[in-house]
Amino acid sequence: MVRSTTIFRVSDGLPLAASVDDETTEKALTEYKQQSKLVFRRLTPNSEPACSIESGDYTLHYLIVGPVIYMCICEGSYPRKLAFSYLDELSKEFSRSYGDKVESVTRPYAFMGFDTFISKTTRLYRDSRSLTHGGQATGPTTQLDQLNENLRDVTRIMTKNMEDLLWRGDSLDRMSHLSTSLRSESAKYRKAARQINIDALIRKWAPVGGIAFFFLLFIWWRFW
Questions:
Q1: Fewer CB within a 10 Å sphere, N or C end of the chain?
Q2: Is 166 exposed, middle or buried (0-12, 13-18, 19+ CB in 10 A)?
Q3: Sign of the C-alpha dihedral, residues 138, 139, 142, 143?
Q4: 125-153: per-residue pLDDT in tens?
Q5: Please, are residues 5 and 19 in contact by the beta-carbon 8 Å criterion?
Q6: Are 73 and 4 in contact (CB under 8 A)?
Q7: How far apart are CA 36 and CA 54, in angstroms?
Q8: Gap between the Cα atoms of 187 and 36, Å rounded
Q9: Alpha-carbon distance 170 to 84, whole Å?
Q10: C-alpha angle with apex 129: 64 to 39, nearest 5 degrees?
Q11: Residues 43, 65 contacting (CB under 8 angstroms)
Q12: Among candidates 114, 86, 84, which has minimal Cα distance to 98?
């Protein structure tokens, strides 16, 4: 089932809204929420628009729609199609309610009132096993039909492993830092090399220049 949901702004990772998680859920998902923050710091408008990231017993699913990232942490066994259908539902309602205000807000969780819709939609998208029992529907068939109609094709959605993703991200960060350092050191080396060349030219031609200067000075003094 969906355990936790957070909505972020793409440009700066500002949290806009979130589900109200109970103390037990909050404690159980602390590590996974920290991992999700590391992931979102690296997301840009050019990142994969939809992705599932596996981490231990849970899977983090995110969907980028315009300037907003919709993320949910689900149990590993929760169907991906349901997860992305759930995120799609959130994106449509959030865009309708707050789409023109997303870029202007400056404080975290400015749209905390959206947690009511998140809670209602989470109950609707409970694990599909709660909708059926022994292959027979236990609730109104219209509810299951609605879910089936809303399911999105997720065959092309990328699946990644959290550890590999974070390791690769850290490596890229280190490579970027190293590249910056190398460029800086290279610039210093070129500057030092130019100075050495200038000093060498001065040492080479200074005696000749001195002699020429005194010769010209002598000529000027002799014939003036």
A1: C
A2: middle
A3: negative
A4: 875 544 444 444 444 445 555 555 555 45
A5: yes
A6: yes
A7: 11
A8: 37
A9: 27
A10: 25
A11: no
A12: 114
| HEC letters along the chain | CEEEEEEEECCCCCEEEECCCCHHHHHHCHHHHHHHHHHHHHCCCCCCCEEEEEECCEEEEEEEECCEEEEEEEECCCCHHHHHHHHHHHHHHHHHHHCCCCCCCCCCCCCHHHHHHHHHHHHHCCCHHHCEECCEECCCHHHHHHHHHHCCCCCCCEEEEHHHHHHHHHHHHHHHHHHHHHHHHHHHHHHHHHHHHHHHHHHHHHHHHHHHHHHHHHHHHHHC
pTM: 0.62
Residues 62-120 pLDDT 10s: 999 999 999 999 988 898 888 999 999 999 999 999 999 999 999 999 999 999 999 99
Pick among 3.30.450.50, 2.40.300.10, 3.40.50.150, 3.40.50.2000: CATH of 2-156: 3.30.450.50
Which tokens hold the place of 96?
């309708």
Rounded CA gap, 65 and 44, in Å?
12
Give the closest residue to 16 by CA, choosing from 25, 24, 7.
7
Residues 6+ apart with CB under 8 A from 158: 48, 50, 51, 52
